[in-house]
Amino acid sequence: xxxxxxxxxxxxxxxxxxxxxxxxxxxxxxxxxxxxxxxxxxxxxxxxxxxxxxxxxxxxxxxxxxxxxxxxxxxxxxxxxxxxxxxxxxxxxxxxxxxxxxxxxxxxxxxxxxxxxxxxxxxxxxxxxxxxxxxxxxxxxxxxxxxxxxxxxxxxxxxxxxxxxxxxxxxxxxxxxxxxxxxxxxxxxxxxxxxxxxxxxxxxxxxxxxxxxxxxxxxxxxxxxxxxxxxxxxxxxxxxxxxxxxxxxxxxxxxxxxxxxxxxxxxxxxxxxxxxxxxxxxxxxxxxxxxxxxxxxxxxxxxxxxxxxxxxxxxxxxxxxxxxxxxxxxxxxxxxxxxxxxx
Length: 343
Ligand SMILES: Nc1nc2c(ncn2[C@@H]2O[C@H](COP(=O)(O)OP(=O)(O)OP(=O)(O)O)[C@@H](O)[C@H]2O)c(=O)[nH]1
Ligand SMILES: [Zn+2]
Description:
This protein is an alpha/beta fold. The chain has four domains: 1-39; 45-105, CATH 2.40.50.140; 122-276, Rossmann fold (3-Layer(aba) Sandwich); 285-342, Probable gtpase engc, domain 3 (Ribonucleotide Reductase Protein R1, domain 1, Orthogonal Bundle). It contains ten helices and 13 strands. The chain has helices at 3-37, 145-156, 175-187, 203-209, 224-231, 235-240, 273-276, 285-291, 316-322, 328-342, and strands at 45-53, 56-61, 68-72, 84-91, 97-105, 111-115, 121-126, 130-136, 159-165, 191-193, 213-217, 257-260, 268-271. The protein has a six-stranded mixed β-sheet with strand order 10-9-8-11-13-12, sandwiched between helices. Strands 1-2-3-5-4 form a five-stranded mixed beta barrel. β8 (130-136), α2 and β9 form a beta-alpha-beta unit. α2 (145-156) crosses α8 (285-291). The model is unreliable at 239-253 (pLDDT under 50). Guanosine-5'-triphosphate binds at residues 165-166, 168-169, 195-197, 218, 220-226, 276.
């Protein structure tokens, strides 16, 4: 077969497939607008996306715990778990909302992004109030791991919280790790200590979660799963927040999900394996410097506009270290992280 003939055939096939696809989409839209026009769907109301599967979403109404399987109006794109939306529900003869259509997306306060397979940043969750960076007495956090997480969190604009887990393993008197934590508290970061080994081990965490939407991140083995299992003890509760037919879904493990926490006052958790792995990947030197919050007062004050804060004369950061306004270990950590970006 000649090359040209093949490509003509291919072109024809592609065009046919595209035409069919467009026709299907147009039909679907027409059906939806008919239903909307015919008043099959009820009033517009607010809700929040609790899970998403392509063009299908689970939306939890503001006045209910049970999410409703919804599809998207054709002109809407890129909704993620945590998005606030306006939607309309369709009721069955018994007056129960059985399905819905999302008609608009609300403003986002924040968005968490992750690089996709091609390295392009894609939103994975929205309207998160705080990133809980979990680390543990064991495995001991290696130097500047905490800083790396803090920088990544600062770059999202979402408030970080440090959670030290497994405090049942702390030595008498607290040891170095607690001293390190005090330093972070001094910088203004909230610090919470936890243990899943004691009945009251999560009290401080519950208080911190109340009234907010949170995500847990942190290195393997620090106890994220254990903490989340304790916060959402009832497996059914995790699944029960979803509409019935989404339980059958096979693609349910990778999407981020939003869970209401049973024991804390209007606390919500967004979780997925991808979110837990949140890390430093895609930052540049500028973002790293800005991620050290105590550097911010000094950035832009160096003598040279393109100062890289190494040994340049008139470097505002180096002078601040000299004066004791920046902790030398934080500055050393900054340097190591910048160097690791280069290699
Ligand atoms: N002593 C002690 N062990 C804990 C505590 N919390 C969790 N562990 C243990 O730490 C180990 C790791 O906990 P996981 O919850 O699997 O940690 P993770 O962060 O989810 O790890 P990945 O799934 O690899 O990301 C398990 O053996 C837990 O039993 C704690 O508060 N104290
Ligand atoms: Zn400088």
